[in-house]
Amino acid sequence: MTSLLSEEDLNDFITPSLACTRPTETKVSEPNVNELGEYEVGKESETLQKVNITLSDCLACSGCITSSEEIMLQKHSHSVFLEAMNRDHGPLCVSVAAQCRISMSQYFGMELMEFDMWLINFFKERFQAKYVVGLQNGRNITIKQTIEKLVEWKQREQDENSKPRLSSVCPGFLIYTEKTKPGLVPLLLNVKSPQQITGSLLKEVDSSMYHLSISPLFDKKLEAERPDSANEVDCVITPMEFLAMIEDLKIDISDYCTKDKNLLVDYSPPGWDPSIHWASNSGSSSGGFAYQYVEYMRRNHVGNCEMQVLPGKNGNILEYRLVDDERKTIASASELSGFRNIQNMVRNLTGGNKRKIQVLRKRTGGGATGIRHSDGGDKVPKQFANPFKSDFIEVNASPGGCINGSGLINMESNAIKRKQYTQHIEQLYFNKLQQIDPINMMNEIQANKNYEYEFMPAVPQEPKDIPLVGRTW
Asked: What biological processes does GO assign it (predicted)?
């Protein structure tokens, strides 16, 4: 017996576009002639050059950044941070994403609480930091304002065929949408990310503050440089860059170990509860915005209802569907990540031509009959996620979301082992972080304003011929 394998079942793969490729620098060199007067063809250099990969070479959004944005990115590195600390600057505040705390605590071989205290003590002793905080206060506001906007939209929108709203907290997806898919911009929910809202909250405490954010994604550097997010974050670095910094400084990790739990309180801004801003919430490891919306609708629905969790056609799609006793959908939201899934989403939401799926036969050791996805043949009576019929899609450019961020520490070189390690880190994320209930706290969550992006969709231009000569991947 055979089962069927479609290309949707394959791992995520990003095909670079010609517009993102770089011209090869062609240098004219002298002919290689040996001592016998013979020409040598293809002679290799005797000295090896150090490999240097810059941020502009690879972003989750497939690398489509401009030269002006590349200049902006130079403001976000550990060397720039160290230079700033050697100049006159305002009080230092450090915010760190939960995914980064899990990643770095594992690398240093510490329990999460032990690492949190170490991190606070390090920035306190080395850089005289005033505050060191987690991102949950900012995330709570993102969740609250996301739910409020979705509920308002759902009450206003009566068309059953209306398209879902899309999250914009992933800068890789946001950049991709603004630059290459401006037709999707009206579907974007303009609520800012926890990183930016946290920065805004800190600057409300002291506008002169220097805010360093430790983020799991390089793309977050571009988010900090958006015109609508000016001055919320002064510098963004990743855990990998943090490691490079402590190596450059020749830091002995043991010098900053401490058991002083009072640091968690002493280095929180006035009114900030460390048991909240160092915590997390239910849902995905990228923020849980889809889950929180459906859970809010469940709690506020009059009558019996049930939340179903439906798997997608691959591991990077999941739907939360709220149904009543008659199995009618009350509300739904989905998680979707990875560039291949994003491309499929774009085709569905923009009405583009659907790709013809080539069905491949996969040999199996057993006799089970596979599912024929392409022609409606024999099917297992099981429901699957349909994110494009959801009210809301939580989109992330990185396959698996922020927990698979390119800036996190993963020393495995083998692709399978890297994936297994990421799964291990995600399990720790759910097990080690204290869980709070943002919905139960919505009345307590204070926000002085709506924290919103101002989208900048690209103006469509006439297609230009792209020369292929001298270009390389």
From this structure: iron-sulfur cluster assembly
Q: Which of 341, 330, 281 is nearest to 308 (CA)?
A: 330
Rounded CA gap, 305 and 294, in Å? Answer: 11
Per the listing, tokens 């043991």 go with 254
Which string of DSSP letters, residue by residue, matches 449-460?
A: S--B----PPPP
Residue 51: the pLDDT is 42
Sign of CA dihedral 184, 190, 191, 194: positive
**Separation CA 171–CA 218 (nearest Å):** 9
Sign of the dihedral through C-alpha 194, 249, 413, 411:
negative
Residue 124 inside a domain? The answer is no
**Residue that is written with structure tokens 């974007």 in the block:** 188
Quote the domain boundaries for residue 364: 141-192+282-414
Q: Percent of the chain having pLDDT more than 90?
A: 68
192 sits in which H/E element = none
Q: Which of 101, 99, 191, 92 is nearest to 138 (CA)?
A: 191
In a domain, 419, yes or no: no
Quick: pLDDT tens for 340-394: 999 999 999 997 655 554 444 443 333 333 333 334 444 445 789 999 999 999 9
SS3 241: helix
3-state SS class at 354: coil
Answer yes or no: is 145 within a domain. Answer: yes
Calpha distance 14→238 (Å, rounded) = 22
- Contact between 373 and 6 (Cβ < 8 Å): yes
Report which of 144, 135, 143, 148 is spatially closest to residue 200, judged by C-alpha positions. 135
CATH number of the structural domain spanning residue 291: 3.40.950
